[in-house]
Amino acid sequence: MGRGRQKAKQTKVARKLKYFSPETDYDALQRELQAQRKRESGDDDAWRYEDVPSATGDDDWYDGGR
């Protein structure tokens, strides 16, 4: 395929993406934001990174750059 046809296809795709506006699911957005607020408020259901067990079981993987 020549450069002209390739560029034309890319332009067509870019234009489609630029002007395409999908339907927004506001209910799903509200649920997601409410869940995020619960995590930030420190609820018991929220988890912290420190609470997640190590996948390797080795917590000393970082040697301080030695």
UniProtKB/TrEMBL annotation:
Biased amino acid composition, Acidic residues: 57-66
InterPro entries given in the database record: DUF3073
Residue stretches of biased makeup (Basic and acidic residues): 35-51
Region annotation (Disordered) ranges: 35-66
Superkingdom, natural source: Bacteria
Name by which UniProt lists this protein: DUF3073 domain-containing protein
Natural source organism: Nanchangia anserum
Taxonomic lineage: Bacteria, Bacillati, Actinomycetota, Actinomycetes, Actinomycetales
